[in-house]
Inverse folding.
């Protein structure tokens, strides 16, 4: 058993990533393959489920070339939330997948906000957004009723893959909670909300436990992917649930921040009464006795990618992350008074205003490129602080704060975050947290140990950053400037 | 014929310039010399009077040499310099301390004290002078000296402004002009100092230190033997009273006719309109300058003009900052980005003084607002250029300018793309006069008028106008520009509350 590897597969927005992980969470091999997003109109975003499958084949074959397939004990899945795959009775995909980025259902969202808000919030405790499956299905029922009638099953992204790998029909509570069709307290589909979507309960996969084996790799899937036939597969979790596991947001009060293209804040929170809190998404956590609260910093990591591009425009050559770290070290804590509002893609948690845009504020003649660079790092850090205040204002007793992925690779940025939060932060060693989380869930499916014990030993902390007392005064001033420029939280 | 040329001296805080002009106003030669500004304490701004005089001598000698003009054909010298401040001299005209300049803010604490006891303090000054008082004006600085350096002030026999000190070094005579006297602060209506204002600052005891007031376009004396030896010009060469640099610039740009707007897009950006009576509206905002020729110039200033562009080059374009071709590269970037910079807005309040017109918020600072991932460096530069132009429109609106004639000078006027943008925004022709030294030209025209070469200074100013490039508004850009102007105003209102 100790030598057994589990495989975590995460279908992200732009690529599938797979990792094989040992019993202590160490990644032995990993692979990824991209797929396209089609934008047939400005408010539409679609992907081809067959492209996911083909990318999966590429990834499995690449990964299996580096490990002994006989060591593979189980597979766990993770995937982007709120993608819809319609499949007929013959197993044929009926149309391209509408993914979470698709916003065509504005009218349907408005209808739900208008006539059904109270019921939706009572059941789901989440904002009513065009991201969710429910308004998307309502659009499909209205505009493509023929296709909806022919759909035997309405899958979400990773659930479609589970079915292709094993023939099993299952989703998980985290995935289902994002759709706006699940009762969060009961962790069950809500009949009336499913009816609002215009689908039949029989079209939806059942909600199953994330770590219970749902099926085994069948012969045809084994032939295509190279995965050993008969390998057990667990449903795993929607990517926020898998992310929370993979970066250790497991014990109640523990919170993790990821700084990929978007920044995510996931916290494990004890179950509580229904209601929307601070514009956060309240979702099912993988563990039954708690919820997962999700905050979003839409351009969390994108801010740095954009900054590199911008500075590249200054110098004629895109700087490396190390060069950016050196530049930001030239500016004082507080960036000499420059504030950056990291709203390049709109203001997420806690302001939730998609129309907001980013700004450099407080500029005077003493500021140079280093001041601008540092202010971008500090701006994202202060956005995290504003989000943490939302959690605290909701009486969440915050425990450890973990940083993972993307920006966590930069020790300088992690230190800025520790200083901005005035709180210790712990950096998770593994990247690809959602895929690692899925592998951890697979491990729990075959090893009869407690999931929390497996998480505790598998999520490895590589660095701890403590607030630098010497920066406290400047950072507190900078925080107040940032909060003033960002404006009140609605 | 003798006196076909006149020499104008224009001493800025950090750069002294001299230029020689013929009677058509053509710039024959220019010489410049930087001078040091000392800041011994935060907010203080001082210059060394001897260094200032040495710089004046240097540029005069060099401009005469470069021009090839026979010194005997120079009909007179006119003076212009940075206004107000305090040049404290003893009975022999020797400086008692470093000169304190217009942008010195040491008196702010005292002004705050006065405001605490009398919230209408600054409004009472505005009602007399027509200007929001700068901390570096003569009277507040003098009041500061009376409190903090009473012994030095006790030994003083003369309190002069910059150009008046230079004239004293040239002629040995003590005098000032109306443009300066009326903003000490003084009385714009009376075109003179004001006893009420002197009393308001508790300075009645020091009134005798202030020099007699003369009209700018008059001679009061000629070069002393020593000054003649130093400058290489003939002894006795007439020196006109001259005027403060703002007044001289309006004259020299050809903006002395009533209803004309004269804008200077320099490090700071000043926009003003010439009137035939003192204008005090809108109240408690902007500046009013008393001009020779019985005119007044109602002005608004955005403290940071091309300063914003200088900063953008230094910060956003280190690869271009030292490149002589950087303005061509700038215009390539402007051409590569759409009007409105793709929704990116720049608020050009980069100076430590924040914004002082059309509203006052000294804590306001510059901003890029509306940033999205698609914005690149070119978009940032376009936003800077547009933001400065929008701030200029704000100033014109505050002045209720509805005239037909607008002049634009200053470094920014050398960029045709920028001028055309401003022209499209203000929807009227803009004239960029030929030449570069309008303060010096105004000073030279005051000398030429004093010499009788023009009947009035108004005639002199009119005589030099008309030579330059005239831009016509292009209505095709108007919608996009005004949409961007709307975004600028929304961002401005968000910042200023």
């Amino acid at each position: 058993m100790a030598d057994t590897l589990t495989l975590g597969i995460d279908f992200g927005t732009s690529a599938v990533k797979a990792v094989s992980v040992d019993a202590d969470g160490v990644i032995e091999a990993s692979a990824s393959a991209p797929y396209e997003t089609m934008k047939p109109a400005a408010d539409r975003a679609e992907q081809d489920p067959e492209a996911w499958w083909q990318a999966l084949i590429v990834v499995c074959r690449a990964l299996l070339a580096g490990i002994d397939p006989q060591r593979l004990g189980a597979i766990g899945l993770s995937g982007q939330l709120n993608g819809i795959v319609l499949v007929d009775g013959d197993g044929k995909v009926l149309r391209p997948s509408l993914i979470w980025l698709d916003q065509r259902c504005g009218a349907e969202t408005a209808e739900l906000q208008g006539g059904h808000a109270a019921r939706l919030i009572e059941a789901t405790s989440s904002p009513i957004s065009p991201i969710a499956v429910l308004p998307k299905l309502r659009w499909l029922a209205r505009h493509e009723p023929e296709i909806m009638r022919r759909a035997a099953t309405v899958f979400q992204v990773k659930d479609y893959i589970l079915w292709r790998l094993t023939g099993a029909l299952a989703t998980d509570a985290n995935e289902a909670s994002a759709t706006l069709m699940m009762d969060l307290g009961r962790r069950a589909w809500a009949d009336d909300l499913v009816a609002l979507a215009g689908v039949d309960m029989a079209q939806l996969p059942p909600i199953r436990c994330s770590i219970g084996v749902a099926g085994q790799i069948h012969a045809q899937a084994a032939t295509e992917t190279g995965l050993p036939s008969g390998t057990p597969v667990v449903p795993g979790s929607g990517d926020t649930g898998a992310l929370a596991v993979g970066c250790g947001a497991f014990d109640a009060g523990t919170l993790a921040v990821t700084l990929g293209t978007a920044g995510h804040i996931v916290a494990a929170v004890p179950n509580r009464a229904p209601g929307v809190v601070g514009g956060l998404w309240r979702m099912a956590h993988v563990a039954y006795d708690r919820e997962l609260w999700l905050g979003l910093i839409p351009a969390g990591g994108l801010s740095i990618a954009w900054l590199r591009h911008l500075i590249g425009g200054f110098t004629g050559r895109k700087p490396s992350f190390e060069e950016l770290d050196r530049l930001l070290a030239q500016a004082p804590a507080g960036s000499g008074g420059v504030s950056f509002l990291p709203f390049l893609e709109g203001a997420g948690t806690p302001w939730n205003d998609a129309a907001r845009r980013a700004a450099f504020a407080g500029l005077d003649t003493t500021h140079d490129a280093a001041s601008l660079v540092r202010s971008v790092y500090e701006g994202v850090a202060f956005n995290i602080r504003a989000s943490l205040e939302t959690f605290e204002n909701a009486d969440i007793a915050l425990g450890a704060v973990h940083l993972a992925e993307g920006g966590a690779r930069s020790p300088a940025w992690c230190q800025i975050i520790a200083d901005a939060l005035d709180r210790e932060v712990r950096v998770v060693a593994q990247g690809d947290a959602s895929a690692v989380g899925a592998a951890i869930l697979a491990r729990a499916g075959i090893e009869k140990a407690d999931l929390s014990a497996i998480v505790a030993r598998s999520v490895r902390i590589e660095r701890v950053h403590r607030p630098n007392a010497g920066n406290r005064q400047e950072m507190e001033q900078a925080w107040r400037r940032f909060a003033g420029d960002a404006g009140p939280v609605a | 014929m003798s006196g076909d040329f006149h020499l104008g001296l224009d001493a800025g805080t950090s750069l002294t310039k001299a230029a020689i002009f013929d009677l058509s106003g053509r710039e024959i030669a220019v010489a410049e010399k930087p001078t040091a500004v000392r800041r011994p304490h935060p907010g203080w701004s001082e210059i060394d009077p001897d260094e200032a005089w040495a710089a004046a001598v240097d540029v005069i000698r060099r401009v005469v040499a470069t021009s090839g003009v026979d010194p005997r054909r120079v009909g007179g010298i006119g003076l212009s310099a940075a206004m107000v401040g305090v040049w404290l001299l003893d009975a022999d005209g020797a400086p008692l301390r470093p000169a304190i300049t217009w942008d010195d803010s040491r008196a702010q604490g005292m002004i705050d004290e006065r405001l605490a006891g009398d919230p209408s303090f600054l409004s009472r000054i505005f009602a007399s002078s027509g200007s929001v008082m700068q901390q570096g004006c003569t009277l507040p600085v003098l009041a500061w000296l009376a409190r903090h350096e009473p012994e030095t002030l006790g030994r003083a026999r003369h309190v002069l402004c910059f150009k008046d000190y230079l004239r004293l070094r040239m002629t040995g005579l003590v005098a000032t002009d109306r443009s300066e006297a009326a903003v000490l602060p003084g009385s714009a209506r009376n075109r003179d100092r004001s006893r009420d204002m002197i009393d308001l600052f508790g300075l009645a005891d020091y009134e005798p230190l202030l020099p007699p007031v003369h009209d700018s376009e008059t001679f009061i004396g000629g070069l002393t033997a020593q000054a003649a030896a130093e400058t290489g010009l003939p002894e006795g060469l007439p020196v006109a009273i001259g005027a403060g640099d703002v007044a001289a610039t309006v004259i020299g740009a050809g903006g002395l006719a009533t209803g004309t707007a004269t804008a200077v897009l320099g490090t700071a950006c000043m926009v003003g309109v010439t009137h035939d009576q003192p204008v005090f509206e809108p109240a408690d905002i902007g500046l009013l300058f008393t001009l020779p020729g019985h005119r007044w110039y109602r002005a608004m200033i955005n403290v940071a003009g091309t300063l914003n562009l200088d900063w953008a080059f230094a910060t956003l374009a280190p690869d271009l900052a030292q490149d002589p071709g950087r303005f061509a590269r700038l215009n390539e970037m402007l051409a590569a980005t759409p009007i409105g910079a793709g929704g990116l807005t720049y608020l050009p309040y980069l100076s430590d003084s924040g914004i002082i017109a059309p509203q006052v918020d000294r804590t306001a600072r510059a901003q890029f607002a509306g940033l999205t991932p698609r914005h690149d460096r070119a978009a940032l530069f376009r936003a800077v250029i547009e933001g400065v132009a929008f701030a200029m429109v704000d100033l014109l609106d505050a002045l209720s300018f509805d005239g037909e004639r607008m002049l634009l000078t200053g470094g920014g006027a050398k960029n045709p793309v920028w001028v055309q943008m401003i022209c499209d925004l203000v929807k009227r022709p803009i004239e960029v006069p030929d030449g570069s030294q309008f303060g010096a030209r105004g000073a030279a025209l005051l000398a030429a008028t004093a010499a009788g070469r023009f009947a009035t200074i108004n005639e002199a100013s009119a005589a030099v106008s008309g030579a330059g490039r005239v831009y016509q508004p292009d209505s095709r850009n108007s919608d996009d520009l005004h949409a961007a102007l709307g975004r600028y105003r929304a961002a401005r209102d968000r910042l200023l509350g």
The first helix of chain A runs from residue 49 to 64. Chain A touches chain B at residues 299, 302, 306, 309-310, 313-316, 337, 343-345, 357-365, 367-369, 372 (CB under 8 Å). The mean pLDDT of chain A is 95. Residues 98 and 365 of chain A are 48 Å apart (CA to CA).
